[in-house]
Design goal:
Radius of gyration: 17 Å
Strand content: 15-25%
Shape: globular
Number of strands: 10
Structural class: alpha/beta
Number of helices: 6
CATH topology of the largest domain: Nucleotidyltransferase, domain 5
Largest sheet: 5 strands, mixed
Low-confidence stretches: none
Distance between the termini: 49 Å
Length: 197
């Protein structure tokens, strides 16, 4: 089974091409380049788009715009290729890349997205209760390193691979493939903009 996965929820978009749990290729870029990355992954693997069996997309939480771009790309590709899609939490994929670590994504507004009791939440980094020695990974851990380390957490070096929600983990975690329109983003909090009448 050939699966294409990508995540555009954070500042660094990741994409991966997987065949039967083997990584054929990976790329990192910005969300706006994800379709170029997909094209390059397929070319490098010597595959054509119709050879894809399924897609996996990161559902967040993360950047509102980034999430919408990723979901729109997944829906467009799934529709054009007539293949199923699965959504995987960006936090869960980040955690899969560093087992035992707490995934921390920069949420803007001086907050981070984390998993608390298995549910995504937004809170101030200073309010995150951690056991001393807990490893924290993700762009939120990098941004709020000083606060997290002051609370006793360990944050790997900024350039560490563990801070990226690698799309290969999305592909490995994916379970429920189905129609693209059923894959919904996880925003955690209400949007900044509101509609007035």
């Amino acid at each position: 089974m050939v699966i294409l996965g990508f995540d555009t929820a954070t500042r660094v978009a990741t994409s991966a091409l997987i065949r039967d749990a083997e990584v054929l290729g990976e790329r990192t870029s910005r969300a706006i380049s994800v379709l170029q990355d997909v094209d390059q992954l397929l070319r490098d693997a010597g595959l054509e788009p119709p050879e894809l069996d399924a897609l996996v997309v990161g559902t967040g939480p993360g950047s509102f715009t980034g999430l919408r771009m990723g979901l729109a790309a997944a829906r467009g590709l799934a529709f054009a290729l007539e293949i199923p899609v699965a959504g995987v939490s960006t936090l869960e994929a980040l955690a899969a890349g560093s087992p035992g670590s707490v995934p921390v994504i920069d949420a803007g507004r001086r907050e981070v997205f984390v998993l608390l009791d298995g549910e995504p939440r937004a809170l101030r980094a200073a309010d995150l209760e951690l056991e001393p020695g807990t490893s924290c990974v993700g762009d939120g851990a990098v941004r709020y390193r000083a606060q997290l380390e002051a609370a006793g957490a360990i944050v790997p070096p900024d350039e560490g691979e563990v801070h990226l929600p690698r799309a290969r983990f999305h592909a490995l975690l994916a379970q429920d493939f189905g129609p693209a329109e059923l894959v919904q983003p996880v925003y955690v909090r209400a949007p900044d903009a509101t509609v007035t009448t």
